[in-house]
Amino acid sequence: MRHVPAFFGPIRVPESFLAVDLFYLVSGFVVAHAYGERLQAGGFFKTFVKTRLIRLYPLYILGLAIG
Protein backbone atom coordinates (compact mmCIF):
# COMPACT_ATOMS: atom_id res chain seq x y z
CA MET A 1 0.00 0.00 0.00
CA ARG A 2 2.88 2.35 0.69
CA HIS A 3 4.87 1.50 -2.44
CA VAL A 4 2.02 1.68 -4.96
CA PRO A 5 -0.72 3.90 -3.48
CA ALA A 6 -2.37 4.42 -6.89
CA PHE A 7 -3.57 0.79 -6.81
CA PHE A 8 -5.24 1.11 -3.40
CA GLY A 9 -7.06 4.41 -3.72
CA PRO A 10 -8.10 6.12 -0.50
CA ILE A 11 -6.93 3.28 1.78
CA ARG A 12 -4.16 4.61 4.02
CA VAL A 13 -2.26 2.73 6.72
CA PRO A 14 0.04 5.29 8.38
CA GLU A 15 1.56 2.80 10.84
CA SER A 16 2.49 0.21 8.23
CA PHE A 17 6.20 0.84 8.85
CA LEU A 18 5.75 -1.07 12.11
CA ALA A 19 5.21 -4.26 10.08
CA VAL A 20 8.79 -3.96 8.80
CA ASP A 21 10.07 -3.67 12.36
CA LEU A 22 8.03 -6.71 13.39
CA PHE A 23 9.37 -8.68 10.41
CA TYR A 24 12.99 -7.97 11.40
CA LEU A 25 12.28 -8.84 15.02
CA VAL A 26 10.67 -12.19 14.18
CA SER A 27 13.27 -13.09 11.55
CA GLY A 28 16.04 -12.36 14.05
CA PHE A 29 14.52 -14.88 16.46
CA VAL A 30 14.15 -17.46 13.67
CA VAL A 31 17.77 -17.06 12.54
CA ALA A 32 19.04 -17.17 16.12
CA HIS A 33 17.06 -20.33 16.78
CA ALA A 34 18.21 -21.99 13.54
CA TYR A 35 21.92 -21.17 13.82
CA GLY A 36 22.52 -20.40 17.49
CA GLU A 37 23.71 -23.83 18.62
CA ARG A 38 25.93 -24.32 15.57
CA LEU A 39 27.59 -20.93 16.06
CA GLN A 40 28.28 -21.65 19.73
CA ALA A 41 29.79 -25.03 18.87
CA GLY A 42 32.44 -23.28 16.75
CA GLY A 43 33.80 -23.87 13.28
CA PHE A 44 30.45 -23.18 11.70
CA PHE A 45 31.33 -19.82 10.14
CA LYS A 46 33.70 -21.24 7.52
CA THR A 47 31.22 -23.95 6.55
CA PHE A 48 28.39 -21.42 6.39
CA VAL A 49 30.35 -19.03 4.14
CA LYS A 50 31.57 -21.86 1.90
CA THR A 51 28.04 -23.20 1.44
CA ARG A 52 26.65 -19.75 0.66
CA LEU A 53 29.39 -19.02 -1.88
CA ILE A 54 28.81 -22.33 -3.65
CA ARG A 55 25.06 -21.66 -3.79
CA LEU A 56 25.09 -17.98 -4.69
CA TYR A 57 28.28 -17.36 -6.68
CA PRO A 58 26.94 -18.89 -9.93
CA LEU A 59 23.94 -16.54 -9.72
CA TYR A 60 26.27 -13.55 -9.32
CA ILE A 61 28.21 -14.61 -12.39
CA LEU A 62 25.00 -15.12 -14.37
CA GLY A 63 23.68 -11.70 -13.31
CA LEU A 64 26.98 -10.09 -14.26
CA ALA A 65 26.92 -11.79 -17.66
CA ILE A 66 23.33 -10.71 -18.32
CA GLY A 67 24.06 -7.17 -17.09
Name a few traits of the molecule.
67 residues; mainly alpha
Architecture overview:
This protein has helices spanning 5-8, 17-41, 44-66. The protein has one domain. By secondary structure, it is mostly helical. The mean pLDDT is 86. The relative contact order is 0.06. The two termini are 30 Å apart. It is flat and about 55 Å long.
Name the overall outline: flat
Mean pLDDT: 86
Query: What share of the residues lie within helices?
Result: over 70%
Kindly report how far apart the N and C termini lie: 30 Å
Spell the H/E element sequence: HHH
Radius of gyration computed on alpha carbons:
19 Å
Strand fraction equals under 5%
Number of helices: 3
Structural class: mainly alpha
Q: What's the structural domain tally?
A: 1
The number of strands is: 0
> Spans with pLDDT under 50 lasting ≥5 residues?
none
The major β-sheet equals: none
